[in-house]
Records
---
Amino acid sequence: MAVAEENTSPEASEKSWHGVVLQTLKRNDIRLVPYVPDRVLTTLIRNLHADPFFTTFPTAREEEAVGIVSGAWMGGMRGAVLMQTSGFATLANILASLAVPYQIPLIMFVSERGTLGEFNYGQSLVCRTMRPVLDSLAMEHHTATRLDEFEFIVDRSIKQAITTQAPVALILSPLLTGGKVFDK
Amino acid sequence: MNIAANNPARNTKVMNRFDLTSRLVAKLNDEEAVIGGIGNTNFDLWAAGHRPQNFYMLGSMGLAFPIALGVALAQPNRRVFALEGDGSLLMQLGSLTTIATLAPDNLTMVVMDNGVYQITGAQPTPAAAVADIVAIAVASGLSNSTWAADEEDFERLIDQSMSASGPTLIGVRIDDKPGTGTTRRDPVQIRERFMHGMGVRELL
């Protein structure tokens, strides 16, 4: 899986999870992609930077990225935010006071740490807070584990977020991405 | 505000949030966007006269500048103003570096600095006695950051920002008066009207 992740040729990226994310964002005219980086997201972030279609940049905090894409949405530009599990854990206040009540189709990709081979106890604990927070706000979320379903999940979730004006979290399981392992 | 009196910007006049907000709104004639931060900042924006291009925050302390950055990126031909309190900005100082990096020339930020969390009982902020918010902004890469000396200077700096070649940040020292009005707390309507004001949506 690590081999697939490192392969960045356009042809191969069509078949990789990060290639699916990039192409599906593009197909849905999602141009603005602020992020707080994660090891698992490295190739995706690099490829987004390399593609002039996207305006992509790091932010200091995940909250800030959510504010930026919310403002952009209201100005007519679509966006999505990339983060890891611990970053999601910083968002409860603004999901509850901005994205959900203002009905903003916030699209989040969360690289999942804390499970399936986690080596840092704190990460595994913070991971357990993620789905309860999403459920407590009745937010749509999916955990992507398989490449053959992934494009369907991403494409349909983006379209549903926009048409229903509701946020969505797409959780990228280590089963999909390979995750982060101890020796990295 | 006395607490702020010892910090390096002490030569600036202590002004009033509602008065300054009204002065800003009176200048707007080209459907400029205005993002009002949480609490008194958006209450005074509301009280200065509602307009469809105003966005009022009902939570998410500290996100006025990031939201304004998003609007500015989406609509580079529209001037975007963001009004934020000093306490709110302290929550997201990192956002100043993001804005400095992206450097949109259509963004004007105003920091209403009274050195206190007025709305929760006027407790001093941790920055009040020691930090200079404009100096923080400059050090974050926003070289076009200035304290307004008085109301006239504030108006001049606002005018200047309209043709600036990068983002502008204006610090204003304000008193500890509460907000003048109270924003109607209807988030969906606020968002929908704002999108209409931005030319993105037709109202139902």
---
Amino acid sequence: MNIRFLSICLALLCAVALPYQAQAQDPLKITIDEGIIEPLPFAVPTFQPESAEAGQMASDLARVVAEDLIGTGLFREIPASAFISTVSDFNASVQYADWKAINAQALVTGAVNVQGNSVNVKFRVYDVFSGAEMGNGLQFSGTVDGWRRMAHKVADEVYSRITGEGGYFDSRVVYVSETGPKDDRKKRLAVMDYDGANVQFLTDSGSIVLAPRFSPSGDRVLYTSYESGFPRIYVLDIGSVSRRVLESADGTMSFAPRFSPSGQTVVFSLTTGGNTDIYTMDIASGASVRLTNTPAIETAPSFSPDGNRIVFESDRSGTQQLYVMSATGGEAKRISFGEGRYGTPVWSPRGDLVAFTKQNKGRFHIGVMRLDGSEERLLTASFLDEGPTWSPNGRVIMFTRETQGAGGSSTLYSVDISGRNLRPVRTPDGGSDPSWSPLQK
Amino acid sequence: MNRILTSTILIAALAVSACTDPSRFGAGGADGVGTNVPQNGGIVPGSANDPSSTAYFQQAVGDRVLFEVDQSTLTATGRATLDGQAAWLLSNSDYQAVIEGHADEQGTRDYNLALGARRANSAQEYLASKGVPSSRMRVVSYGKERPIEICSEEACYAKNRRAVTVLAGGLTS
């Protein structure tokens, strides 16, 4: 995408930062964990074009900002047809009464300047019922090609100011794009913006590819490919789309890789003689360490955000269950005790939860639980849901949903960790095995 | 005249391909051109009635064994099939074998890869116990990635939970 943010200027648009004015109304705030029923109504008038070339961009940017907010399920947009005021000057004072009258609790205004290939976006967020600006005006600069990223950055700021949570819109997802029937499925790696825009294919469909995983800095992807005829782990550089296979002994299979938080180590499964165990490998040197050593299937390892522990699945008890061990191996503690089978655990970026796939009574679920196995919560149910990945802020989970029968196909879905706002993620073809990048810099 | 010449060339081409890739001279090759060729006791080289052919291995010996749900233990039927495979491999020592393990779609991707590996390994170990040299065998798991039946019912799942012995090489002279 070749985006450079030339400046991210905080607090520069207001000469004086206005403090929140004391009002009868509480300041605008969504506390996500308190069971929101009604999405918060907001208005995003088309941004102000500040140069002759900026007209289309001003309109497109405002649309993407609105779609990001609506997509969270926490916000509801008030259509422009209901507006009483128009915003014709980014610096003019806001007519709060006009926005209050249409029940717009939040108002986002913006202005766009396009000069050749460079774009500058300014925006402000208002708490209409408090009659105050939330935070200060902010501006982003970038390229015309990267305009969607600027919209996502604006939306991330708006979301953060209102919810108090980190944003997640300026992020990407690497996944497996799927075409063809179940008995002749073609798979290739693809990367896209979190909302399905800007899809780029990273491999051809000549060999099966599985389960790509982003590096902590978002520059590389680990995945499993049958390119050699046997499953092996590859590391791919997103920028150059060049790849190399990681060390593996002949006659073994390796799969289910994930990066450590440092990005220097990969944890993965290696199968030899029919037995699958968990190993780590230093990516640069290829030196590996065996972490589990049982006749059971040990797979789907995922590091804790501090890199000290690993959550994984094992059928050592007789069925698939979740376990936590030190990142150097040793004794593992079982954490899943509910009915059914548990697999594909993924540690949340906040460190407090594990997302997993649960199989029970012929149905599949995506769920979350605490690290001690308590507070298990199932977020979805279907014929086949699997493979959760966390949004950078730990609020949303994306996963694979496969439909039943001869015509079955895979689609990416996302769901809030409250279980609300289940929705498909638009991709040009079928999709599976998503992995969410960190927030882009 | 032209027709006969064409047939002869075609037969020659098939004979060459049989030297390098016996699987391409599979079940379908027996009909048509084959009937013009003088036969040795009615056996068409490479066809299902040629006991040293891949087609014979696939159809008469049986190239696959099936497994119960979430199991990698061989069934009595599976062991009988593998007995036949072992005997065939021992008398057709030019062939190498890749044993592919597969799972049905009811499971997570990673687990099914590991489960398919267990199944392929069960078959390989059994063949090895019957004297097939390990150096002639390799295993690979496809997990749930390569179903042959696509319905979401037990009738299909039962056929997808399999270990398939795929032959390579052979007839190297």
